[in-house]
Amino acid sequence: MPKTFSDKDRFAPADITKNEYDYLYNDGENYFFMNNTTFEQVELKKAALD
User: pTM score, two decimals?
Assistant: First the structure.
């Protein structure tokens, strides 16, 4: 069941962090990126970026 909100509803601020990543490569199904600070690599499914 969908929830509707009124203008009186209050929410905690979202915890958002900005990071810079470099594109490394793709293997046809996934894209690979590297965090510029930690050098950690992350993988995203192609469908998530389409």
Answer: 0.66
Contact 19, 35 (CB under 8 A): yes
Residues sharing a CB contact under 8 Å with residue 4, sequence separation 6 or more, in sequence order = none
Compute the distance between CA of residue 46 and CA of residue 26 in angstroms, rounded to an integer. Answer: 9
List, as one string, the DSSP characters of 1-50: ------TT---PPP------EEEEEE-SSEEEEEETTT--EEEEEHHHH-
Hey, where are the domains in the chain?
18-50
Q: What is the pLDDT of residues 21-49, one digit of tens each?
A: 999 999 999 999 999 999 999 999 999 88
